[in-house]
Design brief:
With 447 residues, the protein is of the alpha+beta class. It has a domain at 4-54 and 165-242 and 289-337 and 371-440: 3-Layer(bba) Sandwich (FAD/NAD(P)-binding domain). The protein is 33% helix and 26% strand. The protein has helices spanning 15-27, 67-86, 105-118, 130-136, 138-141, 166-178, 224-230, 302-309, 313-324, 326-337, 341-352, 412-427, 433-440, and strands at residues 4-11, 32-36, 93-103, 126-128, 142-143, 146-147, 152-164, 183-187, 194-197, 202-206, 209-218, 237-243, 247-250, 256-259, 271-274, 281-285, 289-290, 365-366, 373-379, 384-386, 390-392, 399-403. Helix 1 (15-27) packs across helix 12 (412-427). The longest helix has 20 residues, at 67-86. Bound molecules: flavin-adenine dinucleotide.
């Protein structure tokens, strides 16, 4: 593949890169797209089913979202549900019961208030008492057949899509893209080592040769920032890689059970989920642990961590501000302890008993090799740890760099649509917004 020119080159064959390949090929008249993936398969890292919680985040059970964010995420999540209707083989989208569980008087009061506030946007959610919870999830409501002692309440539903194998979905996007008139070139084992800018194109150096592009989108997870920095962009950003681990228990839950978020804590509260690749088990987690590497279960990337952290006074100041808060500090230390072999089961069991009160430390098995890494972005200009997704879109360039922690897999088509609009405008492509809105957005484009 020496010096071949493509209209668009996408770096990263995770869910973000694959979703963009699909939208561009299906709804624009782009002639050629190359997808360059470092490893020898699509979705090998965070988009793989073993790396994430496999949740289609609709905003209904995520108490860390305010109503506006929940409504937006719901529309983006719905794009995946609508996409699934267009394919012959759907091996990625599943229905299970799901709920937010409140435990104790204070949480029950907060949940009831939230349920009513969100009712118009999520009319299918029902307010459940302990008896109804016991029907849907006996292990949550009962201990040895008797009601658990604390007051519990849930906001839940039983007939909505809520679980996705994002690895399978990534492959489905590429298969669908290949059915269009666009030339799709997926190049595996093609780590992009360098991107250079020329007058009217970019060149990307990989072990498989050099790829030329009129537009480059880098959706390389935590590595996106390093590639941006190489070209002099995003120098005011750093990456803080937050690993998430899980524990297995034998199947105890029928669906997804999310807990109430502590507003002070930056990462999602503990939840229990079915595991689409280990259906006889229930997965509990994720934990949150800062790791000094950019990929979870691969060799190396320690040096890349330091290069993308760019430790300086400002980064230290952001850490300091986080650690000053005792709730966050305790949470960080506790999550660190969840990784220490001898004590971790006992400690984790205490937290997990909020979901399954009869659970014992002996029931828990640390899920080896499961759990990916969220590339959280530190903005050194605003001095904050950004919790959502971040993109760098340099002015007067045909370049986009995406960093997508949770819920980046759910919002893949929403993000891809945003990028598709930019690419179509820059390259003068026709974008069939009406068709896209009819297929994926129930006929109504985003505002
Ligand atoms: C513990 C955990 C739980 C999560 N749970 C959920 C959930 O339930 N629901 C949800 O919506 N989201 C969840 N997420 C987030 C979700 O996994 C990510 O947002 C999503 O997978 C990001 O996809 P991506 O394609 O942007 O990145 P990735 O999947 O990380 O893909 C990036 C790709 O780029 C490749 N790459 C890197 N560098 C190069 C290079 N130089 N050249 C070529 N290729 C390169 C990598 O090999 C990789 O394949 C979770 C994340 C974690 C860690």
């Amino acid at each position: 593949m020496k010096n071949r020119m493509f209209d668009v080159v996408i770096v990263g064959g995770g869910i973000s890169g694959c979703a963009l390949t699909y939208l561009l090929s299906k709804y624009t008249d782009v002639k050629s797209i190359a997808v360059l993936e470092k490893y020898d398969s699509l979705a090998p890292l965070n988009s793989n089913a073993r790396s994430n919680s496999q949740t289609l985040h609709c905003g209904d059970i995520e108490t860390n979202y305010k109503l506006e964010k929940a409504k937006l995420v719901k529309r983006q999540a719905n794009m995946l549900v609508n996409y699934a209707k267009t394919v012959d083989i759907n091996d990625f989208l599943y229905k299970f019961p799901k709920m937010i569980l409140a435990v104790g008087d204070d949480e029950c009061e907060r949940l009831e208030k939230r349920h009513h506030e969100f009712a118009e946007a999520f009319p299918y959610m029902e307010l459940w008492d302990a008896e109804r919870i016991a029907e849907v999830e006996p292990a949550v409501a009962l201990i040895d057949g008797k009601p658990r002692p604390e007051k519990i309440m849930a906001s839940g539903c039983t007939d909505e899509y809520c679980a996705v194998n994002f690895g399978h979905l990534s492959k489905s996007f590429i298969n669908s893209a290949r059915k269009t008139n666009t030339e799709i070139n997926v190049s595996l084992s093609s780590e992009v080592e360098k991107i250079s800018k020329f007058d009217d194109h970019y060149e990307l150096v990989t072990p498989q040769g050099t790829f030329m592009a009129k537009f480059v989108v880098v959706s390389a997870g935590a590595h996106s920032l390093l590639l941006a920095n190489q070209l002099g962009h995003g120098l005011d950003l750093s990456i803080l890689p937050m690993a998430g681990s899980f524990y297995y228990v034998p199947k105890m839950l029928n669906g997804k059970v999310y807990t109430m978020q502590n507003d002070k804590l930056p990462f999602a509260a503990l939840h229990g989920d079915p595991d689409l690749v280990e259906m006889e088990k229930t997965r509990l987690g994720p934990t949150a642990l800062v790791l000094p590497k950019l990929e979870r279960y691969t060799k190396g990337t320690y040096l890349d961590f330091w290069r993308s952290l760019k430790l300086d006074r400002k980064v230290i100041r952001v850490f300091w501000d986080l650690m000053k808060d005792s709730t966050i500090r305790n949470y960080i230390f506790r999550n660190f302890a969840f990784e220490i072999p001898i004590i971790r089961q006992k400690l984790f069991a205490k937290d997990a008993q909020k979901i399954i009160p009869s659970l014992k430390a002996e029931d828990l098995e640390y899920a080896k090799g499961i759990g990916g890494l969220r590339p959280q972005v530190i903005n050194k200009t605003t001095m904050v740890l950004q919790l959502g997704e971040a993109s760098i879109m340099p002015e007067n360039e045909n370049l986009i760099f995406n960093m997508t922690p949770s819920p980046g897999a759910t919002t893949c088509l929403g993000n891809a649509y945003r990028d598709t609009k930019i690419i179509a405008e820059q390259l003068g492509l026709n974008l069939d917004i009406e068709q896209l809105a009819n297929d994926l957005l129930d006929g109504q484009d985003f505002d």
